[in-house]
Amino acid sequence: MVTLKTFFRYIFRILLGFIAFVLLYLLFAWLLPFWKVNSSFANASKGVEIYIQSNGVHTDIVMPVKSEEINWDEMLPYSDFKNVTADYKYVALGWGDKGFFIDTPTWDDLTFSTAFKAAFGLGTTAMHVTYKYNTPKLTESCRKLTITKEQYQKLISTILESFELKAGIPIWINHSGYTQQDCFYEANGTYSMFKTCNVWTGKTLQAAEIKIGVWTPLESGIVGHME
């Protein structure tokens, strides 16, 4: 028979293990962005200008709407958005947990169920797409990179692999978005605490041979480590 003392000992060990796990997670989340891949990367003298933008939690890759490599408006038509016209110059893309994106427009809307499903890979994923009229302003949370056309093509290919496609076209999600310039599309992959939205950004940049940390679960591991 389990005594009350033994029961509390088990509870204490579980709590201690949980605290140790969280501390180790945060340690590696801080440490591994210093371990760079593609360490020889340097901004190209000419090529395609892209931006990495953070809202303090989530990172997006911002690219020109039109280029020789791709016209994003053909894949992501303006008609999917409430108020986007052909003179918008940039498009921002980010991957993440679908429930988190759609059911949590503000932090006040976050529920334990949504957070639990996202952390442990129990939900589905979505691509969040936002058209931008103006060139992003460079700040501590927005960095610019100039990459070659070859690197940009690799970036595009990796991003397109993240979309769930039907007849070669991204599947639009019937949801209002946060503004009149954004919406969501079905995505491939499983979100978890080990593959966060920022890990997706990091891995996508890695595929384009851009210098970035080996594992970047937090947004600080992305924009905070860009030169």
What's the helix and strand layout?
Layout: H1 4-31, E1 36-37, E2 48-54, E3 59-64, H2 72-75, E4 90-97, H3 98-103, H4 112-119, E5 125-132, E6 142-147, H5 149-162, E7 165-166, E8 169-170, E9 172-173, E10 182-186, H6 197-207, E11 212-213
Antiparallel strand pairs: 1-11, 2-3, 2-6, 3-4, 4-5, 5-10, 7-8, 9-10
Spatial ordering of strands, largest sheet: 6-2-3-4-5-10-9
Tell me about the biggest sheet?
Answer: 7 strands, antiparallel
Number of strands: 11
- Helix content percent band: 25-40%
Looking at the structure, what is the overall shape? globular
Number of domains: 2
Task: Encode the helix/strand succession as letters.
Answer: HEEEHEHHEEHEEEEHE
Keywords:
about 230 residues; alpha+beta; 2 domains; seven-stranded antiparallel sheet; two-stranded antiparallel sheet; 6 helices; 11 strands; about 30% helix; about 20% strand
Brief sketch in words of this structure:
The chain is an alpha+beta fold and 227 residues long.
Would you give an account of this structure?
This protein has 227 residues and is α+β, with helices and mostly antiparallel strands. The chain has 2 domains: 1-34; 36-225, no CATH class. Helices cover 31% and strands 22% of the residues. It has helices spanning 4-31, 72-75, 98-103, 112-119, 149-162, 197-207, and strands at 36-37, 48-54, 59-64, 90-97, 125-132, 142-147, 165-166, 169-170, 172-173, 182-186, 212-213. Strands 6-2-3-4-5-10-9 form a 7-stranded antiparallel sheet. Strands 1-11 form a two-stranded antiparallel ribbon. A two-stranded antiparallel ribbon has the order 7-8. The mean pLDDT is 94.
